[in-house]
Amino acid sequence: MRVAVVNNAVGQADAPDQRDVLVQVDSIRDALIALGNEVETIACGLDLSDVRGRLKKICPEIVFNLVEDLEGHGRLIHLFPFFLDAIAMPYTGSCAESLLVTSNKVMAKERMQNAGLPTPEWVGPFPATLPNLGNSNSMERKIGIWIIKSVWEHASIGLDKNGLIETCDPDLVHKAMKKRVTQLGGACFAERFIDGREFNLSLLSGPEGVEVLPPAEIIFEGYGPEKPRIVDYRAKWDETSYEYHHTPRCFSFGSKDSILISELKSLAMECWKVFGLRGYARVDFRVDTQGRPWILEINANPCLSPDAGFAAAAAYAGISYFEIVRRILDQGSGVTHGMSF
């Protein structure tokens, strides 16, 4: 099969979270070639007419979509797959609509709420010119910890301990959002912080349908009461930091967690259905001190680097990296929408 691997264009000066896509491109290209495919790579920017010309020259049978943003803006993640729909080009992973809804965390929380899925209360988004999409835009006046998050940007961008505020005053929460909005991609919201355990559940299409891969718990090693148990930017991307080396994944659970693990898997499958996901995805959870799971985010295009969490979960299930790529490619083959070239 002739495959075009398309990623968002990045430069040498870009941050580690942006440059990670190049690791994915190299790894997936090598896997596709090993699986017997012809592969070309394209870096995609805002000039989609240029990308269209390059695709027309290559004439791929399918695009392996690794576009995570355009010009560094996560809010533009859906533009490239919408473009592929318009030219009737098959592509891997979730459709443009699913990428749009899941990438906007407030839109995703509204859909979860409407579907009866448990997600923490939220306030916002900020600035006020953005539409209030859900029913959780007025906080109850009870003391609690709130975490300020980007609406659009993923990879824990802008997430650190300074983004947590303990208050029962809505005005203080709005002031905190206003203070941090510029480092959170220009749009943010406040979510009630769930103090407890953190889990990632990866999902992968297969010959028998979607499969929930072994759940991974993030272990916060050596985190005292003064240190928030969050997977912040340093934990993901700063190899020199304490956080990076003290947040390992754990795939082994005792019998006391069997009911919880079953519930997490069931909720992950519900998210797959509610958001119309395809190919592969990841659902992030917190579990509070009473053992109740809460869905934080739906990631419709999780990182596919060989050392990332998705590949680790697959490996624990006995699924090789080559098999991940093959399954994603098989799922995307033949899916077309829109007009012809």
Give an overview in words.
This protein is of the alpha+beta class. It has three domains: 2-92, Rossmann fold, CATH 3.40.50; 121-192, no CATH class; 195-329, ATP-grasp fold, B domain (D-amino Acid Aminotransferase, Chain A, domain 1). 33% of the residues lie in helices and 22% in strands. It is built from eleven helices and 13 strands. The strands form three sheets. Strands 8, 9, 10, 11, 12 and 13 form a six-stranded antiparallel beta sheet that branches. The chain has a four-stranded antiparallel beta sheet with strand order 4-7-5-6, covered by helices on one side. It has a three-stranded parallel beta sheet with strand order 2-1-3, sandwiched between helices. A hairpin with a 4-residue loop joins strand 12 (280-288) and strand 13. Helix 1 packs across helix 11. Mean pLDDT is 90; it is low at 334-341.
